[in-house]
Amino acid sequence: MKNLSYSLNGDEVVSRPATIEELAAAREAALAKLKDEPGAWSMRSCWVCNGAHRRFLTDPDDGFLFRCVMGCGHVYYGGIDITEYDQEPEQKTA
Questions:
Q1: Which of 25, 78, 87, 92 is most buried, judging by how many CB atoms fall within 10 Å of its CB?
Q2: Does the pTM exceed 0.90?
Q3: Domain-by-domain residue ranges, the chain?
């Protein structure tokens, strides 16, 4: 799975693959934010799982850090999916 960068085009959420540099910078910034402000971590639903939450993309430079609890479980920072997919637990199927 690829890490995506999300932005708004009017009211529409658009995505593209995040560059290696963007991903590295976003992960580093997220870790620095947590070091300086441990309470910065939030649990929310993302704009992919809940379209009403596209408002979290209005200022991606704000560095809003959260894990989606609605379904996907991805981690986002500043509009970039910073999930480390190689470290995700395997999904169990019935």
A1: 78
A2: no
A3: 4-86
